[in-house]
Amino acid sequence: MSLVAFPSPAADADSSGLPAGYADVPAVMSPKTLGDLLEVSSRTLERWRAEKVGPAYFSLPGSSLIRYSRADVVAWLTAARVEVTP
To answer: What is the pTM of this model?
Structure first.
């Protein structure tokens, strides 16, 4: 089960400037947190990073830690949206 419902295309932005439905998404996420949100494994996110097809991420200097920003994830999801017309 997803942690957050994805907004509809007509969703308005809230006071934070985020599309409605994204306010509960953490500002910074670990691969595990993002994987839980997207219902994919951390290994899938690792593969997406290697293939450069997933959301932008931060690799913290001097560490193996990977973090994702909410803004980057929202932008990636928005760009990946497929319009289906009847």
So the answer is: 0.73
Nearest to 9 by CA among 86, 84, 62: 84
Contact call for residues 74 and 20 (beta carbons, < 8 A): no
* CA–CA dist 86, 68 (Å, integer): 35
Sheet with 58-59, strands from edge to edge, namely 28-29, 66-69, 58-59
The closest alpha carbon to 57, from 81, 74, 73, 39, belongs to: 73
For residue 20, which amino acid is it?
A
Residue 10: CB atoms within 10 A of its CB come to 6
- The pLDDT tens digits for 36-48 are 999 999 999 999 9
